[in-house]
Each structure stands twice: as structure tokens, then as C-alpha cells.
Design a protein that fits this description.
The structure holds 2 protein chains of 2 kinds.
Chain A: H1 2-27, H2 44-51, H3 53-86, H4 89-104, H5 107-121, H6 127-151, H7 155-163, H8 168-197, H9 200-205, H10 213-219, H11 228-263
Helix pairs in contact in A: 1-11, 2-11, 3-6, 3-8, 3-10, 4-6, 6-8, 7-8
Chain B: H1 2-21, E1 29-35, H2 41-51, E2 54-60, H3 63-72, E3 79-80, H4 84-92, E4 96-97, E5 127-139, E6 162-165, H5 168-178, H6 188-201, E7 205-209, H7 213-218, E8 224-228, H8 229-236, E9 242-245, E10 253-258, E11 260-261, H9 267-278, H10 280-290, H11 297-302, H12 305-308, H13 317-321, H14 332-345
Parallel strand pairs in B: 1-2, 1-3, 6-7, 6-8
Antiparallel strand pairs in B: 4-11, 5-8, 5-9, 5-10
The chains are: A mainly alpha, B alpha/beta.
Chain lengths: 264, 347
């Protein structure tokens, strides 16, 4: 009884989460331009997507900024977290509280303040300003995910390593990083998603040269969002699912190998 | 570990080099900032080939976002396409450069009717790009009587099948025009009358909406809707059941115009581009791609007879004479806001 209820409730939650995406994916194959009117199966929006140079450019900006911002923000975030791990609890508390600000702050405030900041500094708006903005809000997410993982490491381990003569750099790579690997990966994924997702901050920091997918798609609002956006969303969704499956598979294989080694 | 770092480093270098090679070359770059899907991309290519100027084409979603970007100075733009009321605001705030009309040779092709309108009375700052009206979109399979008056939106036969825009100036304009008043009126009695008639209409209204008009009309939830001709174009292209009409009492005329921001670094090229857009063959190609009505008289002449005769796209002079553009009402903007609020909360 309890089992069936469990199964049904999980099923409902999954349905609730994924039904909109499934509807969107189905309508990406609709030959009509309107939601709610099914005219027949066609690949025409996919063909149009391939032809659309503007959207491709936006996709290039979105992906390159997301990848770069994720890498840089993850590195910075991990270093900050490790630094905090070694710091006094007072400093730790102050920095973690300050770190919540970019997360809690409405995007609009962050976007406009960054824009004003860049204007004052007279930085030329474009790819670099958008990248900087993304790094700034990504770092906060990385720290939020990585720091709690770090706190689980018993300081005695570090002291033991130091006793045995390990250098700080060795401790970082041999003791700390392996134990927070999962946290780093989760933080990086979160940062990547936030970066791909963002419209408001990107809009205000893009200036006149850069653009990204969310800006392009939102700009279509007045003339109506064309179904090739559904096609693009479908492709991105499938791509991300494949990526996650791949990561899981690699992790599983590693775990199995690890287990085998342990038994020996 | 070091191999991993090397790979990541390589990726970064690849990306960065990718980004910076993108902006090489010594060609002049013209920054054009327009609404989404509001210009045939082929026209941009033609301009680039003809004048050997690179066009950096970017898009914005609303007038307000255009305003913020321009006002903050985050990026230089050379050609922008604000709507009439936004142009007026930008002129007032000294954000625009005067266009040297001697450089816009093709300005002569703009229909005289659309020159020197209230938002730019001295023809100094803008060249009309597209225009349209406010009118009634209806399903002609259900509505067999002629739709030529605002009165039909007050007809009890169509109770709960009518959509009205949730946009104060537009909806109050509908009521004012129905009563035969100016849609820029600052006469309190006229406004009170308009308010009462909107409250009278309220029980018949299915919903006050903006973006949902398209889907609600196509799915048949409503049969009559107050909407803009631009919205109507997209619906008419995709369903045979819909028609659009501008009532004989007159309506609002709206414009999107080309303008040059004050801090434009390439004013000369910007004028070249605006002139190019106004060239009859280019204006024709653009109006056919975008689907909005062109203010270019020469381009209009070259359009298919079928489109020319469509009163929904090009109302007769008689109706146009009764149409007005919105003007900035200053303090009265708040009074319009209060009226709309009263209508929305009325029982």
C-alpha cells in the first residue's frame, strides 16, 4: 500500500516536472506555427533552425560564456572555499553571509548594478563584460555548494598529513580535492545551468556586441516566438540528458573499479 | 592531473582566440539595434555588400529595455527603432541626434501623410519604419455582420467572447473613439464618459489580455478582440477564419521609426543605412518579409494588388483621417492610469 502511494506520488511529481517539456518537444514537430493547433508532423522547424544564423551566433555566445564562466568560477569558488576552511569561524561566517547576497539579490538589481559598475570603469561592453558578470554570480553558487562538503573533512586528517610531512599543495591535491570532488562537480553543473539560464544580467551587461540565446528568444516576444525555438530547446534538452547519462556512466565505472581495487 | 589542466587550458585558449578573431578586420562597423524578427536578414547582407560596411545587428524586446540600455551608455548604437511615444521621450531627454534629411534622399518616398506627426513635428529626428493601427480582430465564421464600428465590442450578443487589451492608453482610446472624442483628450467630462462606457462593457469582456490574444483567438475561445494590426498580421497569416478591421470612427495610428542616438560614433553610416532602408525596393522587400504596413509610398505602389486593397493593412484615407497618434500627456498620464484602474476593479 505504502509502496504504491510512493510510486504514484513520485510519478505525479515527475509528470508535473516533465510534462511541459514533453509538450514543447512534441510541438517542435508541429507544422503549424501556433501552440494548441496540431497540423501535422514535420521537421520544418529543425530545418529553419539550421538556417537561422542569428540563433546560431547566440548559441555560440551562450555556450562559450557558460563554459568559460563555469571553469573560471569553479576554480575561484574552490579556492575561496578552501581558504575559508582554514580561516577563523568569524571570517567564515562573514564571507558566507556576504556570499548569499548575489544569490538572494534579484537579478535585475545585480544586472543594473553591474552595468553601472562597468560604465564607471569605462570597460567596453561585449563578450568580456558578459563573461565577467556570469563569473561573478556563478562564483557564489559554487561556494554555496562546495563549502558544506569541505566542512565534512575532519581537520585531524590535515593535521595528520602535516605531521607526516606533506606540503600544503600535496594536502590540497591528495586530501581535500578528492573528498570534495562531487561537490565541485555539482557546483560546476549548477554554475553552468545558471549561466545558460540567465537573461536579465546578460541583457544589461551585453552592450552592443554580445548576445545570447535568452536575449534572442526574449526579443522575439513581440512578433511571437517561433517554433524553431522549441526545436532548439528539444535539441538542448536531449544534449543535456546525454551529457548527464555520460557523466553517470563514467562515475559508475570508476566506482566499480574502485570497489575491485579495494577487494584486492 | 597536469594533463587535465593542460586540456582545460587548451580549451580556454581555443575559446578566447575564437572570440577575438571574430572582431578582426578594418571595415567600418555599424551597430543596428532593432526589435526581434523585425528586418529581413537578407537586407542587412545587401547593405554590407553594397557599402562595404559590417553591420553588427542586435535585438531588444521592448522600448523600455532599449531606453535603459541607451540611457546607461552601455554600448554604442548607431541606428535604433523606437516606437512613437518612446521617440518623443528620447527627444525630450536629448538622447537623439538630428538626422540630416539631405542625406536621406529616399525620404521623399515616405507618404506625406506620415511625415511631421506629433511625436516628431519638425521631421528632425526620425524616419518612419513601419506603422499600424489599433483595431478589431474577429472570427468571420462566427460574426457574419460587417465589423466596421467599435459598437460591436459592446454588443451583448457576443457576451464573454470579447477580448480587450490590458493596456490603458489603447483601451481608453477605443472607448474615446467610439464616443467620437480625441484619444489624446484632457477633457475630464469626456474621460468620465469613456470610463463609464468601459465599465458598461466590462460584463461582456472575457478577459483583459495582451500576449494571449493570438492563442485565444486561434483556439476559438474568443471571437472578437481589440488588438494591434501587427499582432493581427501574424494571426491572419496562419488562419483563414480571422479578419481585422479598423472601425470607421477612427483609431490609433502607431509608428516604429528609425532614429540615431546622440552618442552614435558612426552617424554618417547610420544615415546611409536609414536611407538604404527607405529605398523603395528595399522597403518593399522588408514589408513583405515582416508583414507590417510600410509608410513608403513608392514601396506601397509596388505591392501586390491583393495586399494593397486589404483595408486591414492599409485603411482608406477616410478612416486614416480620423486616426491619431498618441501624444505624451504629461500629468494626464496618471489620470488615464486611474481610469483604467477604476475600470479594472469595477463590478
Amino acid at each position: 500500500m505504502v509502496k504504491t502511494v510512493k510510486k504514484i506520488s513520485i510519478g505525479l511529481v515527475m509528470l508535473f516536472l516533465y510534462l511541459p517539456i514533453i509538450v514543447l518537444m512534441i510541438y517542435s514537430f508541429n507544422s503549424s506555427e501556433f501552440l494548441g493547433v496540431w497540423e501535422g508532423f514535420s521537421f520544418k522547424w529543425y530545418a529553419e533552425l539550421v538556417r537561422n544564423a542569428e540563433l546560431k551566433e547566440a548559441l555560440y555566445y551562450t555556450i562559450s560564456i557558460a563554459v568559460l564562466a563555469t571553469i573560471i568560477a569553479t576554480i575561484i569558488g574552490v579556492f575561496v572555499s578552501v581558504g575559508l576552511y582554514y580561516s577563523s569561524s568569524k571570517l567564515k561566517k562573514a564571507v558566507t553571509t556576504a556570499n548569499y547576497l548575489p544569490i538572494v539579490n534579484p537579478d535585475l538589481i545585480t544586472g543594473i548594478s553591474l552595468m553601472i559598475f562597468f560604465v564607471i570603469l569605462r570597460i567596453r561592453f561585449g563578450f568580456s563584460t558578459m563573461l565577467l558578470a556570469h563569473i561573478i554570480f556563478d562564483v557564489a553558487y559554487v561556494i554555496v555548494v562546495v563549502l558544506p562538503k569541505l566542512m565534512h573533512i575532519d581537520f585531524a586528517q590535515i593535521e595528520a598529513a602535516m605531521d607526516l610531512g606533506a606540503k600544503r599543495i600535496t594536502i590540497l591535491f591528495k586530501i581535500i580535492l578528492p573528498q570534495i570532488k562531487q561537490g565541485i562537480l555539482a557546483g560546476a553543473l549548477l554554475a553552468f545551468t545558471m549561466s545558460i539560464d540567465d537573461f536579465v544580467i546578460s541583457f544589461f551587461t551585453a552592450g552592443n556586441r554580445a548576445t545570447n540565446l535568452s536575449i534572442s528568444i526574449y526579443s522575439m516576444a513581440r512578433r511571437g516566438i517561433k517554433p524553431y525555438v522549441n526545436a532548439l530547446a528539444t535539441l538542448m534538452f536531449v544534449g543535456i540528458i546525454l551529457l548527464i547519462l555520460l557523466i553517470n556512466k563514467i562515475n559508475n565505472e570508476k566506482e566499480e573499479k574502485g570497489r575491485l581495487l579495494n577487494y584486492e | 592531473m597536469s594533463r587535465k589542466i593542460a586540456i582545460i587550458g587548451l580549451i580556454i585558449i581555443l575559446f578566447v582566440s575564437f572570440v577575438f578573431t571574430g572582431c578582426s578586420g578594418n571595415k567600418k562597423v555599424l551597430n543596428v539595434y532593432n526589435w526581434g524578427s523585425y528586418m529581413d536578414p537578407d537586407i542587412i547582407e545587401k547593405f554590407e555588400d553594397e557599402y562595404d560596411i559590417k553591420v553588427n545587428y542586435r535585438e531588444y524586446p521592448t522600448n523600455e529595455e532599449l531606453y535603459i540600455k541607451l540611457k546607461s551608455g552601455s554600448g554604442d548604437f548607431d541606428v535604433i527603432f523606437p516606437s512613437d511615444y518612446m521617440l518623443e521621450k528620447m527627444i525630450k531627454e536629448d538622447m537623439l541626434a538630428k538626422i540630416d534629411m539631405d542625406n536621406i534622399e529616399n525620404y521623399q518616398y515616405i507618404n506625406d501623410r506620415f511625415k511631421g506627426l506629433a511625436y516628431d513635428a519638425d521631421e528632425e529626428y526620425s524616419v518612419p519604419y513601419f506603422w499600424g493601427t489599433l483595431g478589431i480582430l474577429y472570427n468571420h465564421t462566427v460574426i457574419t455582420e460587417p465589423v466596421d464600428s467599435w459598437d460591436i465590442l459592446w454588443d451583448e450578443k457576443y457576451s464573454k467572447q470579447i477580448l480587450v487589451l490590458d493596456s490603458q492608453r489603447d483601451s481608453i482610446a477605443m472607448a474615446l473613439k467610439r464616443l467620437g472624442y480625441s484619444l489624446n483628450t484632457t477633457n475630464d467630462d469626456e474621460l468620465e464618459e469613456a470610463k463609464q462606457s468601459l465599465i458598461e462593457q466590462k460584463p461582456l469582456v472575457l478577459a483583459y489580455v495582451i500576449d494571449e490574444v493570438k492563442n485565444m483567438m486561434i483556439q476559438g475561445e474568443a471571437v472578437l478582440a481589440l488588438t494591434w494590426s501587427g499582432e493581427a498580421v501574424d494571426i491572419l497569416d496562419n488562419t483563414e477564419d480571422a479578419s481585422y478591421a479598423v472601425p470607421k470612427e477612427g483609431s490609433n495610428l502607431w509608428f516604429d521609426v528609425a532614429a540615431i542616438p546622440k552618442n552614435s560614433p558612426n552617424k554618417e553610416e547610420a544615415e546611409l543605412f536609414i536611407d538604404f532602408l527607405t529605398r523603395p525596393d528595399i522597403a518593399l522587400q522588408n514589408t513583405e518579409w515582416v508583414g507590417y504596413s510600410t509608410p513608403n509610398a513608392a514601396a506601397y505602389e509596388m505591392l501586390d494588388e491583393e495586399i494593397k486593397s486589404l483595408e486591414s493593412y492599409y485603411p482608406s484615407d477616410e478612416v486614416l483621417d480620423k486616426c491619431e497618434v498618441f501624444i505624451d500627456l504629461g500629468e494626464y498620464n496618471n489620470i488615464y492610469g486611474d481610469i483604467w484602474l477604476d475600470v479594472k476593479i469595477a463590478d
